[in-house]
TrEMBL record:
<dbReference type="InterPro" id="IPR000421">
    <property type="entry name" value="FA58C"/>
</dbReference>
<dbReference type="Pfam" id="PF00754">
    <property type="entry name" value="F5_F8_type_C"/>
</dbReference>
<dbReference type="InterPro" id="IPR008979">
    <property type="entry name" value="Galactose-bd-like_sf"/>
</dbReference>
<protein>
    <submittedName>
        <fullName>Discoidin domain-containing protein</fullName>
    </submittedName>
</protein>
<dbReference type="Pfam" id="PF17882">
    <property type="entry name" value="SBD"/>
</dbReference>
<dbReference type="InterPro" id="IPR040964">
    <property type="entry name" value="SBD"/>
</dbReference>
<feature type="domain" description="F5/8 type C">
    <location>
        <begin position="296"/>
        <end position="441"/>
    </location>
</feature>
Length: 509
């Protein structure tokens, strides 16, 4: 290969560099870029192993000209490689807020083995500043490689802290007031920094912000829990590679999820997702983001409960001739249990004593007047002595196959046996249900949402909490990648053997 990924990223101080070192004259770091005064220069030195492999180089210089008050600025730019001009007196667009990518073709004959030089110079006639954001160089056949490497390197520092300020909305004369620090981290293993971020707290407060491309600043808005709206802005105060920085917040504020994506009619393992948003208020219950590649996601957090395993169920009556038996209550199918009376008793035996905190009843397929309306749930250690745990009266189901969850009141304790005693239904001579489930105390937070890649439609997205020691379980995508690599290596080996045989035949002929 002619030379490695080569870039200089001036959005950070010191600059992020790959296969390069930089020398400055008449230039200074200005928060998100280098500011070059008239006659200022930036000299980049980079290494080339074999210029014969590089017929042409794609050079991208991302820059902007500062304004002169309300007027367009003026700072022409000269570009030299090995002292030879690539561009002279180039007028870079100014007057806006977004830097421009200026792309040049550098002839390969200008390169030499070893150290090469690139010089970017602001004209001595410049009347305003030339702002330089980044420089990348790539062999013409690999355009974009260095930019991808740059963004991946920048994304490694994915834990951010910002000093923030607020002021009342629609009041430009009001002073900005200090607000609590914002600490956040969003990473799903794609090496992409966020462009936008939004969240809603458990108290109902909502925030939406958008970042500068170099993550130095953000601007947005907040609606407090009482409905008051503010402008909201921040400037970066710290940035770290995970897990540094997250030790500044309680452990429960950082969420780590095993995730699945829903497509092709099924769910498929995806990257681990890490989420942290700490704005000094209540924890978020919903988060949205869009990254700098155009990918976006939405997650709604919810409490996950473990389901108690039922090993046996007995009913006071069941319709065995139609296979509408009590055991159907334990299945995920739509088969139901039907009893030929307007009252019924269901006894459940658990695999182990479980502290049930809630239970779920699922209505069956037809005849709403068969639905239970009044019942009592009892618990027992031995299956003989029963203690009431929860009683309900006048309950209804709005639709067929509706799952309703009922939370036990008071302080629950563990039981091995549970009895559902149904004392009234909707008026029919039978009682029916499709499913009964018992849930134990919460085991953590999961999420439901969607994810959308920039060039695709939205897909389902869901997650469950990562265990305390997740590194022993290799994610499925990584396993598939390893298998694909092994297959590719084997295929290449076979191809090499075939080519060697062909070469031998050619030599014989």
């Amino acid at each position: 290969m002619g030379f490695e990924a080569t870039y200089a990223d001036f959005s950070a101080d010191p600059a992020r560099l790959a296969n390069a070192d930089v020398r400055l004259h008449g230039a200074r770091f200005a928060g998100s870029h280098l500011a070059l005064s008239a006659g200022g220069t930036v000299t980049l030195r980079f290494e080339v192993a074999d210029p014969e492999d590089v017929p042409q180089v794609t050079l991208t210089v991302t820059a902007l000209v500062s304004k002169a008050g309300a007027s367009l600025g003026y700072a022409p730019m000269d570009v030299f490689v090995q002292g030879e001009p690539v561009a002279e007196n180039l007028t870079v667009p100014g007057g806006g807020d977004l830097p421009q990518d200026n792309v040049f073709a550098v002839p390969g004959h200008l390169l030499k083995p070893g150290t090469n030089t690139l010089e970017i110079r602001s004209s001595a006639e410049a009347r305003t500043m030339l702002w330089l954001y980044r420089v990348t160089l790539d062999p013409v056949w690999e355009r974009g490689r260095s930019e991808r490497a740059r963004t991946a390197a920048a994304a490694r520092d994915s834990v951010f802290a910002y000093r923030t300020e607020v002021r009342p909305a629609h009041s430009s004369s009001a002073h900005w007031q200090p607000a609590p620090r914002l600490l956040f981290h969003v990473d799903r293993g794609e090496h992409a920094l966020p462009a936008q971020l939004g969240w809603r707290g458990t108290d109902g407060a909502e925030t939406a912000i958008s970042f500068q491309s170099n993550m130095s600043d953000f601007h947005g808005c907040r609606r407090d829990a009482d409905g008051v709206v503010h402008e909201y802005r921040g400037r970066v105060a710290g940035r770290w590679a995970y897990p540094e920085g997250v030790d500044q917040v309680p452990a429960e504020s950082l969420h780590r999820f095993h995730t699945e994506e829903g497509w092709g009619g099924g769910w498929h393992r995806s990257h681990e997702l890490r989420l942290l948003v700490d704005d000094g208020g209540p924890a978020p219950e919903r988060m949205t983001w869009r990254d700098q590649r155009g990918n976006s996601g939405v997650v709604v957090l919810h409490t996950l409960e473990d389901e108690a395993e039922v090993t046996e169920v007995e009913a006071s009556d069941e319709y065995a001739e139609a296979d509408e038996i009590a055991h159907n209550l334990l299945d995920d199918s739509r088969d139901k249990w039907l009893a030929g009376d307007d009252t019924a008793v269901l006894d459940f035996t658990l695999a182990r004593p479980a502290t049930v905190t809630s239970y779920v009843l699922v209505s069956a397929n037809d005849f709403p007047d068969r639905d239970p309306q009044d019942w009592t749930l009892h618990g027992s250690d031995d299956g003989r002595t029963w203690t009431p745990l929860d009683s309900r009266t006048g309950e209804t189901f709005d639709r067929r196959y509706q799952a309703r969850e009922f939370t036990l009141r008071g302080t629950p304790r563990a039981h091995r046996h549970l009895r559902l005693e149904i004392t009234r239904n909707g008026g029919a001579h039978e009682i029916q249900l499709a499913q009964v489930r018992f849930l134990e105390r919460p085991v953590g937070q999961g999420f439901t949402g969607y994810y959308q890649r920039h060039d695709e439609g939205p897909i389902g997205y869901r997650g469950t909490p990562v265990a305390a020691s997740p590194l022993t379980d290799l994610p499925a995508p990584a396993s598939r990648v390893a298998a694909d690599l092994e297959t590719a290596v084997a295929s290449l080996a076979e191809t090499a053997q075939t080519l060697a045989a062909l070469a031998a035949q050619l030599r014989r002929h």
